[in-house]
Amino acid sequence: MTRMTRMTRSESRLRWLGAGTLLVTICTVAAAQSPQKADVEGVRNFTKVDATIGCAGATDVSAIPTLAGMGYKSIINLRQSSEPGAAIDESRQAATAAGMKYVHLPLNGSAPDPSVIDGFIAAVTDPANQPAFVHCGSANRVGAVWLAKRMVVDKWTEARALEEATTIGLSSATLREFALSYAAARR
Questions:
Q1: What is 36-186's CATH number, 3.90.190.10, 3.40.50.150, 3.20.10.10, 3.40.50.720?
Q2: Staple 57 to which of 3, 8, 45, 162, CB 3.0 to 4.6 Å?
Q3: Is the separation of the CB atoms in 54 and 70 below 8 Å?
Q4: Is the pLDDT of residue 135 over 60?
Q5: What residues are paired with 103 via a beta bridge?
């Protein structure tokens, strides 16, 4: 065989190394696109969904400067003022002091209102609010509104959007059906 049709062992190893590097890169990119759980002091059930969104449950006012330091430009709070520990006014003040925008969209988990999802989609898709940190008490309501956003705005399939929403914290059958009905009516 001539040199042009035959590879040396070094050339063969380099090709295998290149193929291996490509595979690792593809796996790393795929992993980066899936929601990542993390521990953030003062934040319950934190999930970094992607570069533009972080989701969580109950968030202590003391955690807001940390969230600003993580690069979040806005906080979207789905908690109702009547919930124990919601601290809406204190959270708004802390967010403003940290240079963040604060959006309060109270969502009643047992009697959800579609207008809250309308407001959520408007807030979360506004580039001025990105990256956004979204929270409620447990991340259940966050999972529901995010499910609707993924299906309506991002055109995800129900199965894919449900998988991500469950990872975020969606566990309520009522909220799941609410989000799916919302998405079905707007697709």
A1: 3.90.190.10
A2: 45
A3: yes
A4: yes
A5: 76
> Taking Cα atoms as reference points, which of 159, 164, 158 lies closest to residue 182?
158
Six token digits for residue 129: 């609010």
The residue count for the chain: 187
What are the Cα distances from residue 34, in Å, to 2, 50, 134, 148? 48, 7, 17, 18
Contact criterion met (CB below 8 Å) for 78 and 136: yes
Does residue 32 surpass a pLDDT of 50?
A: no
Q: Which two tokens stand for residue 46?
A: 């934190």
What ranges do the domains of the chain cover?
1-33, 36-186
Query: Hey, what amino acid is at 25?
Result: T
Q: List pLDDT tens digits, range 144-182.
A: 999 999 999 999 999 999 999 999 999 999 999 999 999
Phi-psi region of 126 (alpha: psi -120 to 50; beta: other; left: phi over 0): beta
In sequence order, the 6+-apart residues with CB closer than 8 A to the CB of 91 are 59, 61, 64, 75, 77, 102
